[in-house]
Amino acid sequence: MGNVASATVEGNIFAHNTTGTGPRAIQIHDAHSAGSWRVVENTTFTNNVVYDWGGNLIDIQTAEGGKSQQPVNLQFTGNTVQGSGADGILVRHSVPASLPGVGAGGNRFHSTLPERAWFRVGGRNHDLEQWKQLVNDKSSVAQQAQFPDPNRTIASYGTSIGKPASLAAFLAEARLQSKANWRPAYTAAAVNAYIRAGFGM
Q1: How far apart, in whole angstroms, are the C-alpha atoms of residue 63 and residue 54?
Q2: What is the pTM of this model?
């Protein structure tokens, strides 16, 4: 996200990235010369899940193009951010100057990496308590989340409705949808609800 005046990002699942170079589940950046150098202002990320991503999870990259504009009133509240040993850091600030514009609270952080490597500001690593002090966070915790079934896929959804366990089989049936042959089980809403339930959402 970049060049944002106001937004709420709520109730999303960022999970199971397996490809890409330096992937980021959430990236905050400037507008990359797109007519404005606003970064992200008056924006709240709340009740999202980041899980098993395979790269830096939250990346606040705000020193592009030599402009070094910073976020304003960027809030992270009530999110569940869970990494694994293959992941990068949980939250990275490319420059310390971004810290005054960021607030946080009520989040659950965990990674199999040592806690001292969970957060990075500039080139320096921080543990959770150190980072909380930097962003005026009074209530986030280090806690591994217990999800009902976080590894659900479209293939496993097929099994749950008594059909073949493959993405190809689901897509073949979804392509047959029509006004005369409409089946709710082959809609995005049904799959989304199944996967969200695996995260307790």
Answers
A1: 24
A2: 0.89
Provide the token pair at 166: 């493959």
pLDDT at site 135: 97
The alpha carbon of residue 141 and the mean position of all alpha carbons in its chain are separated, in whole angstroms, by: 17
Residue 60's nearest CA partner among 125, 119, 11 is 119
Rounded Cα gap, residues 46 and 147, in angstroms: 18
Where are the chain's structural domains? 7-142, 154-198
Task: Indicate the SS3 state at residue 20.
Answer: coil
Write the pLDDT tens digit of every residue in 120-143.
Answer: 999 899 999 999 999 999 999 999
Q: What is the pLDDT of residues 27-82, one digit of tens each?
A: 998 766 555 667 899 999 999 999 988 777 899 887 655 556 889 999 999 999 99
Separation between Cα atoms, residue 170 and residue 92, nearest integer Å: 38
Q: Tell me the CA distances in angstroms from 150 to 16, 161, 196, one per residue in order.
A: 9, 18, 8
Contact 194, 150 (CB under 8 A): no
Q: Which two tokens stand for residue 195?
A: 């996967």
DSSP state of 178: B
Strand 80-82 versus strand 119-121 pairing type: unpaired
Query: Which strand (E) or helix (H) includes residue 59?
Result: strand 58-61
Identify any residues that bridge with 74 across adjacent strands, giving them in sequence order: 43, 102
